[in-house]
Amino acid sequence: xxxxxxxxxxxxxxxxxxxxxxxxxxVLGIGDDAAVVEVSGNKLLVITTDMLVEGSHFIWxxxxxxxxxxxxxxxxxxxVAAMGGKPLHAVVALGLPSSLQVxxxxxxxxxxxxxxxxxxxxxxxxxITASPSNLVVSVTVVGEVxxxxxxTQAGAAEGDLVAxxxxxxxxxxxxxxxxxxxxxxxxxxxxxxxxxxxxxxxRVEAGQELAATGRVHAMKDISDGLAKxxxxxxxxxxxMILIKAxxxxxxPAAAAVAIELGQDPLLMALTGGEDYELVFxxxxxxxxxxxxxxxxxxxxxxxxxxxxxxxxxxxEKSGVRARLTPGGYxxx
Length: 332
Hints:
By secondary structure, the protein is an alpha+beta fold. It is built from ten helices and 13 strands.
């Protein structure tokens, strides 16, 4: 069987089935945004790894070395945020073509350090090896979370409301501009799209504060597209999720770029990916608490749907419900 036949989700499940955790300190293994391990004291370790491969996750000619360093760390911090955790340390492994300029590596670490300093994260080690062709970046971040504040993707409860932070589709719009130029897109929309794609803002404080309310039952970061993340939550929680099209916060950058491409802006917001916002479910009667928690951090938040008995994810548009397939980014 080839990888493109089994797909990313099928491959992850196949690997999971072959591994049998035996260490009693393993609280949560493969399958969520991060793994969770029990250690001495009153905290849990949160551990996550992401790999970025040239030609698959980024185009070297379309991103500066500094922005690549920044983004490589940001995607990991977003995973920790989705668990309600506080990031602490990072290790970085690089596969480097010998033709790469030393100054590019300097700029890469400068960009990474810029973001690390903002959240008190120390880059404490890693590995460097030669790569025969493409640049490969692998970052592992370790954080901590209070056991009472740990949020996973499997806790959505019937009656919960579903919400997202920020706006969606900006990063996909930025990628479209890098690939297609799109000179007729306005300067403000262009700047917003490129900034969100090249330098995403992980919702670290929002993830911690939302988890600390004790009212958030399930949470994920939006790395592979809202549609895919919602399907993951629904499957893990054994629930149905219904969202309404008119409540999805479509970024103005996504709207401008999608129209220029002849695409549906809503589809770009649902499947574009790499927004690194948070999607979460929470107790229906706690909207004011959730709203004020995000407002204190100057983070926009929008209710987009609800959790119900059943399975799958459904999108309601103009009174018509249709199943929302995972869509979004797939590695194979």
